[in-house]
């Protein structure tokens, strides 16, 4: 007797950090044999994030690696260098016997390491290939570096809608969006396993952090697509039910609050050890959220993008420890620079850095990246005519989600379903007389 639903399922988890490891953990919790493939020298960078046991900056310091345990329980660790042909050949051999391959390698990295779906599918047509991308599989930003703090929170509109005008924004929690994406990918993998049981073949499954953020805002996104308006903007204008005097009082309070909040925001932001993982305002009052956690890797690029190459060798900032020691000074240098250009002027310059603008929902529904990945679908509603609706965030190459009918009207299908269950029209009339059905 099978004691666990996924017992006998072999999963290769070629990922690091959070979203895909969480997906793999869910599969492992239900009995799958998950092999977490880590870099042969550095391992998974998630090991080093937590303060204390990991030696990193995040969380409450502890000798117990609670963060690593939470995301990677029930797995086995295998260290292999994918940059070497011999390492890739080991993975290929494992793929031949695997049921699921999971990755969050960027699209360019999948090509570089020869870990693309087409290559692995040729080795094992039954393989289910699951992945999380930052911005989706298509579009101009398909290979831009991404974290949940930049894409899920900022670009998808979550930060904007959780910020009451005049007050400080939310404090994003580590892997908050990653966890939802991981759960969504696990759902997609389970669908694919079920489909394989019926068809005998695997398929590709993917989900993005960008779409995951929109999915979490389904109510508000539906409103924005229907009305063309942003919930927060509406709340400040037509949605405000107070008197004109109350409106003036509110606006004055917001103005006063903003001054205090900006001072408080500076107080906190100038103490963030890595100024390349911070938020900066632009000339036109927009915000850009950066999250270059691999600080040494991005330091040179960051100096070039802001046109301050002389900062790179400056001994006050040349190393991660030096930048941490002088983070307040560096924050104010960056803050001043980012206020010299508008968001649109900065967009092309930040394309190779983990960064996203903090967008409103009107920005989001018009975002070219969202459009390129078909986040929104045209739909001819029988009652309301042509409109747009949000697609499923889980993309499946062989058995995709479909939109077959609109949301039902109240009791629309009661008689139809009862007839399918074998009841007669006489039974239905009696149910109505007895008040069992409307």
Show the helix and strand layout.
Blueprint (H helix, E strand, L loop, with lengths): L9 E5 L4 H11 L3 E6 L11 E3 L5 E5 L3 H7 L2 E5 L5 H11 L4 E4 L3 H6 L4 H7 L4 E6 L14 H8 L2 H4 L14 H24 L4 E5 H8 L1 H10 L3 H6 L7 H26 L9 E3 L5 E4 L4 H11 L14 H6 L1 H12 L4 H4 L8 E3 L3 H5 L2 H5 L3 E6 L3 E6 L4 E2 L17 H7 L4 H9 L5
Question: Tags for this entry?
Answer:
438 residues; alpha/beta; Rossmann fold; three-stranded antiparallel sheet; 14 strands
Architecture overview:
The protein is an alpha/beta fold. Among the domains are: 10-215, 3-Layer(aba) Sandwich (Rossmann fold), CATH 3.40.50; 270-359, formyl-coa transferase, domain 3 (2-Layer Sandwich). The protein is 43% helix and 14% strand. The chain has 20 helices and 14 strands. The chain has a 7-stranded mixed β-sheet, sandwiched between helices. A 3-stranded antiparallel β-sheet has the order 9-10-11, sandwiched between helices. It has a two-stranded parallel ribbon with strand order 3-4. Strand 1, helix 1 and strand 2 (33-38) form a beta-alpha-beta unit. The two termini are 46 Å apart.
